[in-house]
Amino acid sequence: MTSDGADRSLDVRTRRKLKDERCMRFRRAIERYEEHCRLQEAIAEFPDFPSLSAAPAAPARRRKNARPAHGFAGAVRG
Q1: Would you state the pLDDT for residue 78?
Q2: What is the pLDDT of residues 26-75, one digit of tens each?
Q3: Distance between CA 22 and CA 1 in Å, rounded?
Q4: DSSP letter for each residue of the chain
Q5: CB atoms within 10 A of CB 43
Q6: Which residues contact 49 (CB under 8 A, 6 or more apart)?
């Protein structure tokens, strides 16, 4: 059996790991955004190529009749 202290230290390590992972995701998102801004500035220096500075195409639309994630939204129980 594990002692209460061991469980607590595991919880602390787990929380710290999750926090670190969240911080790294946030940091990577910031870095992607900064890189995107740098690229947009670089592209803006070339007005002869309007297709390069155009916004990316809109993402594909979702299907209207897609099932909800849980699958049985409209099921009737009898």
Answers
A1: 47
A2: 999 999 999 999 999 998 888 776 655 455 555 555 555 555 555 555 55
A3: 31
A4: ---HHHHHHHHHHHHHHHHHHHHHHHHHHHHHHHHHHHHHHHHHT-TT-HHHHSPPPPPPPPPTTPPPTTS-TT----
A5: 14
A6: 43
- What mean pLDDT value characterizes the chain? 76
Contact 67, 73 (CB under 8 A): yes
Render pLDDT for 50-64 as a digit per residue (tens, 0 to 9): 655 455 555 555 555
pTM metric for this prediction: 0.48
Position 8 scores a pLDDT of 82
- Helices and strands in the chain, H and E counts: 2, 0
Residue with tokens 């639309």: 61
